[in-house]
Structures are given as C-alpha cells and as structure tokens.
Amino acid sequence: MTMPLPSFVKRVLCACLVLLPLAAASVEEADLKTQALDLYSDIKATEEAAFQDTRSVALYFGNREPDLIVRAIQVTVDGREVARYTYSDLEIESIRNGGIHLLADLRLPIGRYAIGVKATAMSVEGGPHAERLYPYIEETFALERNTQWELALVHDAWFKWQNKAAIKVQERGIKNSVSDSLRLKAMYFNAERHQAFEALADALAVLKGGGRADQFSPSLTQALNRSAYEFGLVDIPATLKPVLHNDQARQSPQISPVYSQYNAGVELLKRGEWAQGVQTLMALSAGEYVEYDELLLRDKINLALGFHFLKQGDSELSAKYFRLVRRLSPYANKALVGLGWALLSPRQNRVPAPVDALGAAAPSTAYLWSGSEDEIAWARRHTPFRRAWAVASGGKAEDLQAALVPWMELMNRDPLDPAVQEGLLILPYAMSHWAGQAQRADSYYALATSRLAEALQRLNSASADVQRGGLRNAIDLADQRESSGWNIWLSTIYDSKDGYLDLLLEGSAFYRALQDYRQIARIYHVLSGYKDSAVVAANNGALGGKLSDLLPRLALSVARSAEIIDRIALAELSRHRKRTETYLAEANFALARNHENARRSLTSVVWDGEERQ
User: Which end of the chain is less enclosed by CB atoms within 10 A, N or C?
Assistant: First the structure.
C-alpha cells in the first residue's frame, strides 16, 4: 500500500524517533491527518475542475436487483482490460444499500469505443456452491464529452424465466457536478468499506465546492461519522461540521448487544457474582449467530464457561462447553487442553455446582488449569497425581485414557501456540502415570523437545525478520493489492511470515499499532502519488508547496508508526520465546530425569547380579 520511504526517513528513525513521547506523537499525528485530509480535498476539487476541459469517462458499478448479488466484475475498452474487481460481503451489502463503486476513471480522446463488461452473479440466498450466472455485454459508445457510465445488473421477468441476467450501461451525464448523486453514493460505498480517508476527503471537497449538507442522506451522514471516528479526526474542519454533527465523530460506534452482554457477564464473574454472571454467559452461548465475529465471541464464551465449571468441580458441564467450541476456531486448542482436564477430573469427591448455587461458590479446585497463558501449566503441576511416580488405576485409568484423546489432537498443531506447547508436555506427563507406558512417555518427551526446539528456532527467525523490516514490507506489499475488497492482506502475510503473525495479533497493543500504521501509510501513499501531477503544479504552485511540506512529515509519521510496530512485535516475540525456552527446559529436565531413573535401576540390577556371583 505504501511507497518506499526516503532514505533520510530511515536515518531519522534510527537516530531519534524512539525518543519522541508517544502521547505527543499521537497529537501531532492527529493534526497531520487533518492537514492531509484538507489538502487531499483541495487536490480533488482542483482535479475535478481541470478535467472539465478534458475527455474522461468514470465507470461506476451499482446493483438494484433485490434477488441477485455480483461477486466479481471485469471491464474492457477496445479489448483492453481497464478494471477487474472482486467484491467482499461487506461491499456487496453496501451496494445493495445504495452505494456504488467507482471502478475506473479513464482519460480517453474523442472517438468511438467498444466497452465490454463481464460479471459473476449469484442468488442473494445462495451459499458457497450456489449456481453462478455470468452476464456479459459489449457495446459501442461515442465519447464526445466528460461523462459518467453506470454499469448495472438486469434481472427482470424475461431473464428470470430463462434463469439468466444481463448487464446494462447507462450514461449519467457530466461528471463531478456538486449535486452529483453518483458521487455521493460512491462516497457512501467508500465509508462503508472503511476507506475513511477517501470518503471524508470527497465529502470535504463536495462541501468546499458548494454542496449542501442536506444533500447528504441520513445513511451517508451516519457512515461518514463512523469514518471520522475510524480516522481519528480530533479537530473537525469547519466545512465538515454540518455533516459530522453533534460530535458523533468523537464517539465510539455502538457495539452489538452481544458484546455488551458478554462484557457485563465477565464483569459479574470478576466481582464474584457467579450466579448472575454464569446465567448471562449461558444465555449468550445458546444464542443463534451468523456474523463471523459473533461466532468467535460464542467460542470465547463457551471457553470461559468451560473453565468456570472446571474450577467449580463440575466436569460434566465443563466438558459440555469445551465441546461447543468449534474445532477450527482460534480458541480450539485451549478448549482441547481444558477438555482433557475435565475428563480427568476426579470421579469421587466431585462437588456439583448448580447454577442457582453459584452465588456462594468460588473457584476452589486446586489442580485445574485457569486458561491464562501466564498460568498455562498450573493444572499439570497440581494434578491429582501428587507423587511423581503415581500410577492411575481403576476408574482413574479410564479417565486418563479419555483425557488423552483431546490432548493427542494437539500434538501435530502449531508449536508456537501456547496451548499446543502445554499439550506437548501434558501428554508425556499423563503417559508417565499410566501403567506400562513409561517408554511411550519418553518418546513423547523427546518429541516435545524436538517440536519446542523447532518453535524456538522459528521465534528467533521471526525476530530477525522483524528487525530486517520484513513484517512491515509484507504489510505494505499486501496492502498494495487493490483488485479485491476482501481483506486478504493477512493471508498474504501468513504465507511469508510462517504463522508468527497469529501470536502478534493476539495482543491489543500490536493490533492498534498495526491499524495506525496502515492508516498513515495509506495517506502517505495516496498523496505521494500526486508529487509529479500537473494538477498539483497548477494553481500557481500553491498545492505543490503544501504537498512538498506535508509529504516529509507524513513519511516521518509512517516511520514512527513503523518503529512502534517493530518494537511491540519484538517485545511480544521475546515474551513467547521466554515461555518456549521454559517449556523446552522442562521437557529436557523430564527426559533427563527419566533416563537417570532408568540408569539407576539398571545399575542396581547389575550390582545385584555381581553380589550373587
């Protein structure tokens, strides 16, 4: 997404950026973003006025068909591809709500052109394997003036009867007029897909050009207020205030009631109000969810309930909620660890903790894993096997065999995951308490040392990669791909970062720093594209002077944000490396201890034989 930084920025980064106070930097960055927004709106207004005297065509895509959605679209002019885009679910919903997408803005001489449009459409209710429709059109148009073309889907009665769809191209007149409804709809589309900088700059340009606040629909106004909050717009320009009214831009958007109730339930548990807290979480666990984020939250709720009932000594309820965590969820590994301990809970002396009695109860079971990464091995170190060489028998042996099933699943999962690292030690530990399985316990301890050593090497390589700038370069390269609305940049980074990004994204500090970096880098990238623009050079060079002054400051801000990302990433990787070293040392100690006991036993046999002779 960003262009390479000037070499002087890198030198400044190494020399003095780390000395800047974080709070001061954030205030300066907020002011810088406001200035960038003001400049970009002026550039857009000047650009629009300049293009009135040229021949250009803006290609928009919109869809008003209620029963079809378009997943992808391709546009050619005289056989040459000028636009190709794949729409995300978020963008599809935005278009269905009235937004339109500016696919391309072409500069073409006067003449006749053949425009071809191909689309991939499907039913609104269709799943991943639903039948696709492939509408296509190729028409010849005469371009004689600055204009706009809107591409739209057609699925009327005739096409429905044939189970087909078509594309129509409509000319919408002179582009970039202040009252242009297409421009406002495109502004809404950008705001809804979280391109806050572009949406706000366009709104500011419209208002500066004479547009009125009453031209902005309530849905557009609401979307722009969300954009202002995402953008971190502290000082709202006076021109924007009629649209960003009542300081809504400074307020956090309303979160889903599901999250509010979850936070309330967790807070009740923290205050010791067990009955109310558990009832709240259990009600949320039983809810029906469709959104991906809410499904993740349900997994987290079930995990929390599993560990709560585990601590209460109710292994049956605990196992029930651990099993509700989806196997492909980020919380699955922790759930497998907890499920094993639930199945290994004592058959005797179990203290049931019904929901109506939890108000007086408190976590008391001494050997149960808390779920916290800092206490991840606490359960294993306080299990029912109080003596190092105790052997399970009877019902406890059956419990142990049942517990091994979920723990075995952890063995081949990513060893960077703290829950997997715990599982690597749980399994041989459990084997050592199972009659006749001492040799298998040794082999699993050996496997644990091998996989933990591998994880340690990967963490060392990850730290080296961050120090070389590899993480930020991967983020930049992934963000430069603008042919798809899907947020696939994370997947692109995963390909080259060997999975260590998972560890970093678990921390809220890194996530916030990443968002800040991507936003300021986006601003730098957009404005730096105008350095050699004739539009900026015009107007007696006023815009060029502002741009020349702003770009080095933006580059400095990008470098500052990059330094923060690297610093947080290295600190997180160091923390994970220390934990991994601890696990590796523990596995090596257990292996050495087992070998030493075997050696002593063998020595005793040898000496006993010599004495008999």
Answer: C
Extract the runs of DSSP E, i.e. beta strands, from 38-79: 56-62, 68-77
Distant-in-sequence, close-in-space partners of 335: CB < 8 Å, separation ≥ 6: 299, 302, 303, 306, 322, 323, 325, 329
DSSP summary character for residue 434: B
In this structure, are strands 80-86 and 166-171 parallel, antiparallel, or unpaired?
A: unpaired
- Between CA 116 and CA 135 the distance in angstroms is 11
> Quick one: CA dihedral 546, 550, 552, 555, positive or negative?
negative
Residues 519, 30: Cα–Cα separation, whole Å: 11
Helix residue ranges, H only, 145-195: 157-161, 181-192
At 70 the three-state DSSP class reads: strand
Question: Tokens 């923290």 label which residue?
Answer: 270
Cα(409)–Cα(426) distance, integer angstroms: 12
| CATH fold for the domain made of 257-436 | 1.25.40
- The model's pLDDT over 523-547, given as tens digits with 9 standing for 90+, comes to 999 999 888 887 777 766 788 889 9
Computed over its alpha carbons, how large is the radius of gyration of the chain?
31
Q: What is the mean pLDDT of residues 467-495?
A: 76
pTM for the model? 0.77
C-alpha angle with apex 363: 361 to 369, nearest 5 degrees? 155
Q: Quote the pLDDT of residue 252.
A: 55
| Residue pointed to by tokens 């589309």 | 189
The total number of residues written for the chain in this structure: 613
Backbone angles phi, psi at 440, to 5 degrees: -65, -35
Nearest to 104, CA basis, from 169, 138, 63, 148: 148
The single-letter DSSP state of residue 169 is E
Six-digit token string for 89? 């679910």
Query: Where exactly are the structural domains of the chain?
Result: 7-49+470-576, 56-175, 176-242, 257-436
Four-point Cα dihedral 349, 352, 353, 356, nearest 10? -140
pLDDT at 139: 87
